[in-house]
Design a protein that fits this description.
The complex is a heterodimer of chains A (379) and B (307).
Chain A lengths: L5 E10 L2 E11 L4 E5 L6 H9 L6 E6 L2 E2 L10 E4 L11 H11 L4 H14 L15 H13 L5 E5 L7 H18 L2 E6 L2 H7 L2 E6 L2 E6 L1 H6 L4 H6 L4 E10 L3 E6 L2 E6 L8 E6 L5 E4 L8 E11 L3 E8 L4 E7 L12 E5 L6 E4 L6 H4 L2 H9 L1
Chain B lengths: L1 H6 L6 H9 L7 H24 L16 H5 L9 H34 L5 H7 L2 H4 L2 H15 L7 H27 L2 H8 L4 H30 L2 H5 L9 H10 L4 H28 L9 H5 L5
Helix pairs in contact in B: 3-14, 5-9, 5-11, 5-13, 9-11, 10-11, 11-14, 13-14
Classes of the chains: A alpha+beta (379), B mainly alpha (307).
Chain lengths: 379, 307
């Protein structure tokens, strides 16, 4: 077993009447890049703060490499945190910020100097030792915060939306850098974010949280391709949702009826009967010319609107069932042969259609726009 | 600007021209500037006149007859240096102010830390009660302190000790309010970061919180010094006369009898001392917050009288 395994057992946190984290169970193996993904207020930051030791759990256990640390004070835990706004000590320079933890651990002077130098090298900031944090750019502050936490060689590094305050371009560059860094140092990274793209790009595995509970845990690909709940389907990227009625459900294949049109979908774990929802990602929706050869899983439709987004073209379609769907067509340089009002034929491939139990979106439907708003607020 | 000037109709009267100059919405807010300068002049001119007559060469406090240092040290009997009453008053004032700073500042800082981090029941009323000494009329406080010292704590007699206790009582509030304001603006993040990096609460206080609070502590010490040296009512109620009379008490007494320019001289000295202390505090604040000042002004710490 690699070092830095975290296990959360029936972990719960109440703030007065409000339950921020509701009895979650989660196992993060050592050495993984693990993300907690969810809208603001879903309890992901509270979970991280409990692992760091800043919040005391209302009940439950936090196992770090097998031993319960739930009631150990933060300064005695072998975990370190990169804070959302970095929290670099403004009265200390870069060197003293990074050396802070080593000095608290009473490491000898030579060792402190060597380890700080190595940490600075790791985050590519050598030569900036004497700068104050106010003299650094946002990206540089972020790196100092990383170095300050990593220099202590923690079992687990906790990152609380560390890229939230940076501009989009820098964020993209640092995403890759963080991932490379994690593989280099081999420390467990627990990354909290509301940005689904960030979580998908960087994580080995991720957990999607909503309203204090965990909706789904898995590798990015599994969670994106195989959402288990409507919330996950909706929160991870744009999803086309349609009301459907289950006609028959056999092993692997289901037949559903959408407003009279019968469609074949992929199977579902567990039982689904009666009314349900079907989900398809916009990039999996195929457009065919009106009157093309008919086949299974095809619906007549009409183009409502065409939105040019640069790398792709978003086509908003009204299906014959009355539902509005979105199709994403890769921009290949040729103009699309559709305009508003063009009749088309939709192909919804069976292996891209997913049947989900209709249990309501919870707070999902109005929360999906939250990440952008939050990013705008922090910017 | 030239286009605006040309656009004006010719032959406007002087008054409307001045009016237009004052309320030109594209220019600086000249009306506000005017009011500000009027106020500054109004408040500073009497002080400057008082200072000027402390240098008068004759006994007159109204007719200027030439510059001299007579009332500071020149006069062998009535100068600040040679009149024992004046010298004692000055020493007593400085003694009280220094003791006040030394005692009230640490207590106030600790109270602020406790109040800012205390989340439970009773924290709100306590936070509010801290403002009480600031809003209580000083005369009420002076009388009640005298009652306390003459009937309850009878081992404390009027005089220097009682005066110091009186000053400390109301000064603590200033410290608490200023330091607490700074604590709220710092937030908990630095403490959490320190704990995260292995610092125990005591170490976090000493290595992180205390350095970050230093500007506010200096600011509050300067404010305490200034209010203490300025105080009349409490010093007067708790004075036992003679050598425990402070400069304000002395000036008050002197102006009712036959005042000499030496009164102006001692007032000038006091003003200079206060200005120097507050300026030093302000400069220290500037230096210490050099790294973290992004549009924040001294007013945020010096004038952090928000709840």
């Amino acid at each position: 077993m690699a070092r830095g395994e975290i296990q959360l057992i029936d972990l719960r946190k109440d703030f007065g009447e409000l339950t921020a984290v509701d009895e979650i169970n989660l196992r993060m193996p050592g050495g993984e890049f693990f993300s907690l993904l969810g809208p603001s207020g879903c309890g992901k930051t509270t979970t991280l703060r409990m692992i760091a030791g800043f919040e005391r759990p209302s009940s439950g256990r936090i196992l770090l490499d097998g031993s319960d640390v739930a009631y150990t004070p933060p300064h005695k835990r072998n975990v370190n945190t990169v804070f959302q706004n970095y929290a670099l000590f403004p009265h200390l320079n870069v060197y003293d910020n990074i050396a802070f933890g080593l000095r608290r651990a009473r490491r000898p002077k030579d060792e402190v100097r060597q380890r700080v130098a190595r940490a600075l090298e790791l985050v590519q900031l050598s030569g900036l030792e004497k700068r104050k944090s106010s003299q650094l750019s946002g990206g540089q502050q972020q790196r100092v915060a990383l170095a300050r936490a990593l220099v202590l060689n923690p079992a687990v590094l906790l990152l609380d939306e560390p890229l939230g305050a940076l501009d989009a371009k820098l964020r993209k560059a640092l995403q890759l850098e963080l991932k490379v860094l994690q593989q280099e140092v081999g420390v467990t990274f627990l990354y909290v974010t509301h940005d689904q793209e960030e979580a998908l790009t960087m994580s080995d595995r991720l957990a999607v949280m909503n309203a204090g509970r965990i909706e789904q845990v898995g590798a990015p690909r599994d969670v994106y391709e195989d959402p288990q709940t409507l919330f996950v389907a909706d929160f991870l990227g744009v999803s086309n949702l349609m009301d459907a009625t289950v006609v028959s459900a056999e092993d692997g294949r289901c037949r559903v009826s959408v407003d009279g049109f019968e469609l074949e979908t992929r199977g579902v774990d567990g039982k689904v009967a009666g009314s349900a929802k079907i989900v398809i990602r916009p990039e999996r929706v195929e457009l065919e010319p009106h009157g093309a050869a008919s086949g299974p899983n095809r619906l007549p439709a009409m183009v409502e609107r065409i939105v040019y987004v640069g790398s792709a073209v978003k086509v908003i379609i009204r299906a014959a069932t009355g539902e509005m769907l979105e199709a994403l067509v890769q921009n290949t340089g040729t103009e699309l042969p559709y305009v508003q009002g063009t009749p088309v034929q939709l192909h919804l491939p069976a292996e891209a259609l997913r049947l989900l139990p209709d249990q309501g979106l919870g707070t999902a439907s109005d929360e999906v726009t939250a990440p952008d708003e939050e990013a705008a607020a922090t910017a | 600007m030239t286009t605006v000037a040309q656009a004006r109709p010719a032959g406007v009267s002087g008054w409307s021209r001045i009016w237009g100059w004052l309320r030109n919405p594209w220019g600086r807010p000249r009306f506000l500037v005017l009011v500000t300068w009027a106020y500054i002049l109004w408040s500073i001119v009497p002080v400057l006149i008082a200072v000027q007559f402390s240098f008068n060469s004759t006994r007159s406090r109204t007719v200027w007859q030439g510059f001299s240092w007579r009332w500071y040290w020149g006069d062998p009997v009535d100068s600040v240096l040679h009149d024992p009453t004046l010298a004692h008053a000055l020493i007593q004032s400085l003694k009280l102010a220094t003791a006040d700073v030394v005692i009230a500042t640490p207590i106030g800082v600790l109270l602020a830390l406790g109040l800012a981090r205390w989340q439970g029941r009773g924290s709100r009323p306590s936070n509010f009660l801290m403002l009480f000494p600031l809003v209580t009329p000083e005369i009420v406080m002076g009388v009640s302190l005298l009652l306390v010292f003459s009937h309850i704590f009878m081992f404390i007699h009027t005089g220097t000790l009682a005066q110091i206790l009186g000053h400390v009582t109301f000064s603590i509030s200033y410290v608490v309010v200023i330091v607490r304001g700074r604590l709220f603006s710092i937030g908990r993040q630095y403490e959490e970061a320190a704990a995260d990096l292995g610092a125990s609460p005591t170490i976090a206080l000493a290595r992180v919180l205390f350095p970050l609070l230093t500007p506010a502590i200096i600011a509050s010490a300067a404010v305490v010094f200034a209010t203490s040296i300025d105080d009349f009512v409490i010093s007067q109620w708790l004075s036992k006369g003679g050598v425990t009379d402070t400069v304000p008490i002395l000036i008050y007494g002197a102006t009712r009898a036959a005042p000499l320019p030496s009164t102006n001289a001692i007032a000038t000295i006091m003003m200079v001392v206060t200005l120097v202390v507050v300026t030093l505090g302000f400069l220290a604040w500037r230096v210490l917050t050099r790294g973290e000042r992004h549009g924040a002004t001294a007013a945020e710490d010096f004038g952090a009288f928000n709840i």
